[in-house]
């Protein structure tokens, strides 16, 4: 698979400071919770004629606005539409906006990968859903944007240009100290309740929880294994 065609001829969807192309990825490719961090953009426009240029909407002394296109007065509450016109994310070195119908465009990121050029719909951008070894250098989302905390492409740090991989380390569960079991006594001490009160509360809150005769039950944090797998990023 080759890297495709840059339909922009090097003139669009490119960070000209470092030569890294903007990245495009489907919202369905990332974990759903990631979308909760985006802020929605609401279109400010004239409800009479649809004018949406800020210099055409003049604020009056009485608190109302006047549209310089249709000359009509506008109540402030009517300037903002009910439906969002788009969304964006600016945090942790990222600048991301909505793109097409269900895609995201990464304008800035601490990371990059190599991908195939997008179709003519987003000329010059790299398609993060089609990563290839000899592709175009493309801004990318980090490992923590994906299920299982691992990106579906090789990930590199923009500053160091070193690859960032995920390593797994088995650690003793801090909740049960490796026993695989939790106790009603520990929960009672944590809540400041009696053993009986805690036992009854656990049964009401979690009716499927099996409490043994010795007042122990499977540790919720490690699912009874006594250990947890911790994933860490490592630069190589």
Task: Characterise the protein shown here.
- The chain is mainly beta and 236 residues long.
- The protein has two domains: 14-162, no CATH class; 172-230, Arc Repressor Mutant, subunit A (Orthogonal Bundle), CATH 1.10.10.
- Helix content is 8%, strand content 38%.
- The protein is built from two helices and 18 strands.
- It has helices at residues 184-191, 195-205, and strands spanning 14-15, 20-21, 23-26, 39-44, 57-59, 65-67, 73-74, 80-91, 94-99, 103-108, 111-117, 126-131, 136-140, 156-157, 164-172, 181-183, 216-218, 227-235.
- The strands form five sheets. Strands 3, 4, 8, 9, 10, 11, 12, 13 and 14 form a nine-stranded mixed sheet that branches. It has a three-stranded antiparallel sheet with strand order 5-6-7, with no helix packed on it. Strands 1-2 form a two-stranded antiparallel sheet.
- It is flat, with a radius of gyration of 26 Å.
- The model has no long low-confidence stretch (mean pLDDT 90).
């Amino acid at each position: 698979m080759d890297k495709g065609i840059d339909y922009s001829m090097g003139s669009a969807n490119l960070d000209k400071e470092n030569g890294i192309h903007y990245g495009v990825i489907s919202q369905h490719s990332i974990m759903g919770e990631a979308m909760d961090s985006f802020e929605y953009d609401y279109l400010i426009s004239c409800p009479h004629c649809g004018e949406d240029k800020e210099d055409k909407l003049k604020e009056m002394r009485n608190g109302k606005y006047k549209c310089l296109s249709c000359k009509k007065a506008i109540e402030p509450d009517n300037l903002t539409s009910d439906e969002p016109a788009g969304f964006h994310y600016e945090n942790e070195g990222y600048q991301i906006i909505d793109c097409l119908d269900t895609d995201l465009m990464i304008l800035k990121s601490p990371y990059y990968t190599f991908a195939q050029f997008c179709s003519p719909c987003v000329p010059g951008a790299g398609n993060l859903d089609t990563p290839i070894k000899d592709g175009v250098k493309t801004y990318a989302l980090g490992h923590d944007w994906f299920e299982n905390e691992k990106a579906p492409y090789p990930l590199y740090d923009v500053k160091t240009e070193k690859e960032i991989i995920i390593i797994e380390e088995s650690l003793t569960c801090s909740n049960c100290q490796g026993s695989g079991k939790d106790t009603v006594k520990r929960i009672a001490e944590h809540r400041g309740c009696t053993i009986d009160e805690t036992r009854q509360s656990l049964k009401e809150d979690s009716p499927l929880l099996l409490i043994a005769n010795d007042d122990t039950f499977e540790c919720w944090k490690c699912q009874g294994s006594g250990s947890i797998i911790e994933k860490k990023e490592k630069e190589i």
